[in-house]
Specification:
about 35% strand; about 300 residues; Porin; eight-stranded antiparallel β-barrel; about 15% helix; mainly beta
Length: about 300
């Protein structure tokens, strides 16, 4: 048994040394600058609606409602400027939703609002990271391995960028919420009309594992700071329900305040006439966790000009 363990230990040490030998020539990475990739994973919303079973915390993943997570898909292009510095452009399609009925926090549960939205996002970002650059023995072991061996390299990158996205909040039953003006948009004292387009600041971390120098597999966690508070159609205070019904119809009033009535006066003005809080003024955000698969195009070496003899 001791002999077997000793032989195995020597074998593992030997193979480890083989695969740890780097062969990458200085500047060889420049032949692998351009990469295309696709991604798929889960997306979540951080805003006024839904959340965990306690009072919400803006921008905090602690408030992420896991039962409400949906899917995210993406595709992009990456260009390596330096060995561990790159720029990339990406398109993302994400589905997000929030549902007060899923939380047991009494005020949000009583509010009983919900929404869903598809997000179409285009972004550009810079990526800075570090990692291993070992690639394995270039030619293998003579007379023992009959094929060339390619190694595996790993990298961890942080990134930040800027993007633009489109959203269109609907109820879970499929009714578009923006045309209903649920917070009195267009009426005296009501909220301002909002746009379906906004700017985002994507930031996060990316892990990549490269095989044979051209194939990459990784995982990406990306959080987006936005500049709108209406991804979920909720931002400020309740508008007078009777005025909404008179101006925009009973459907507007129904979706503006579908509260359960479990907390007396929760959606009504106080004694001084101040309207009840419907949401807060902190802007919304959303995030995604995706698996990425990419392919890097190898640039051919330039052929050196051959000197011809005059004789």
């Amino acid at each position: 048994m001791k002999k077997i363990l000793f032989v195995n230990l020597l074998l593992l040490t030997f193979l480890g040394n083989v695969f740890a030998q780097g062969f990458t020539r200085p500047g060889d990475w420049k032949r692998y600058r351009k990469e295309v990739f696709v991604s798929m994973g889960a997306s979540g919303f951080l805003g006024d609606l839904g959340g965990r079973n306690k009072i919400g915390k803006d921008f905090s993943p602690v408030d992420l409602d896991f039962p409400a997570t949906k899917t995210a898909f993406g595709a992009g292009y990456r260009y390596k400027i330096e060995k561990w510095f790159a720029v990339s452009g990406k398109f993302n399609y994400l589905r997000i939703q929030g549902n007060d009925a899923l939380t047991t926090e009494q005020f949000r549960n009583n509010r009983n609002l919900n929404f869903k939205s598809n997000i179409f996002e285009v972004s550009a970002r810079v990526e800075l990271g570090f990692g291993s650059s070992k690639s394995g023995n270039r030619y293998g072991i003579k007379k023992t391995l009959g094929r060339r061996m390619k190694g595996v390299s790993h990298g961890v990158f942080g990134f930040v960028g800027v993007g633009g996205f489109y959203f269109n909040p609907k109820s879970l039953s499929g009714v578009k919420l923006k045309p209903l003006n649920t917070e009195g948009q267009g009426l005296p004292g009501g909220a301002k009309k909002y746009s379906n387009y906004s700017i985002s600041i994507p930031m996060g971390i990316l892990y990549r594992c490269t095989f044979q120098k051209v194939w990459t597999v990784g995982a990406e966690l990306c959080w987006r700071k936005t500049f709108t508070d209406y991804i979920d159609d909720v931002s400020t205070v309740y508008y007078d329900n009777a005025a909404l019904a008179a101006a925009y119809g009973p459907q507007s009033a129904a979706f503006a305040d579908p509260s359960k009535g479990n907390i007396f006066g929760a959606t009504s003005p106080d004694g001084s006439g101040n309207p009840a809080q419907r949401g807060d003024k902190n802007i919304d955000s959303y995030l995604s966790l995706e698996v990425t698969v990419g392919y890097t195009f190898k640039q051919q070496r330039r052929k050196k000009a051959k000197l011809r003899s005059k004789f």
